[in-house]
Write a structure and sequence with these properties.
single chain; alpha/beta; TIM Barrel; four-stranded parallel β-sheet; 9 helices; binds NADP nicotinamide-adenine-dinucleotide phosphate
Amino acid sequence: MSNNDEDRNKKQKVEDKTLAGRERGALVELQKSNYDIFLTRDCLAYSKIKPSVNQIETHPYFQRDSLVKFCQKHGICVTAHTPLGGAIANTEWFGSVSCLDDPVIKALAKKYNKTVAQIVLRWGIQRDPVVIPKTSKIERLYENYQVFDFTISDQDMDKMKGIDRNYRTNQPAKFWGMDLYA
Ligand SMILES: NC(=O)c1ccc[n+]([C@@H]2O[C@H](COP(=O)([O-])OP(=O)(O)OC[C@H]3O[C@@H](n4cnc5c(N)ncnc54)[C@H](OP(=O)(O)O)[C@@H]3O)[C@@H](O)[C@H]2O)c1
């Protein structure tokens, strides 16, 4: 049996169990994480249960417009993990460049009288995805909620498009020695 056949058999077994679970009322939704376009297309082709959510890294430096639009077209809700680009945490962990230092976003923050993080989160919400920022600080938790009282203009949304770097800030390969996202 080839590796591909084995993979397919494993997927079939998971699918059978999942379907059985759904029939028993144990499963409500199928959600997936870090699926790129090819994996998502694959999943849509073989899975009898259409995934409802794809949780992916996306932020101003990693916009992934094609993947976001592909998911939206197929009715899959995109959840943006790492929506602040991981901020200082990913800089410390992985040496990543933070979008919170970006001059274009800083200028917009000034213009809208908001913080840089609020601009980044508002931009994320206006693209449609659900955003799930994380903070260990109560004042930032409050700050991160104050994003529903303003709208970024279409012109400024276009400006944000221009700063995409196709740049992943979660880079666990630096510790694990293998690239999960290859
Ligand atoms: N599915 C997956 O593979 C996957 C991968 C990664 C992450 N996630 C999930 O995505 C969520 C967020 O991910 P994340 O923590 O990696 O990224 P993030 O939310 O983009 O960034 C978190 C960092 O931003 C800082 N921060 C939060 N609010 C801020 C603000 N207003 N101004 C400046 N800095 C701010 C936090 O520091 P302080 O704590 O000091 O405020 C922390 O260093 C988590 O629930 C995580 O579990 C999922």
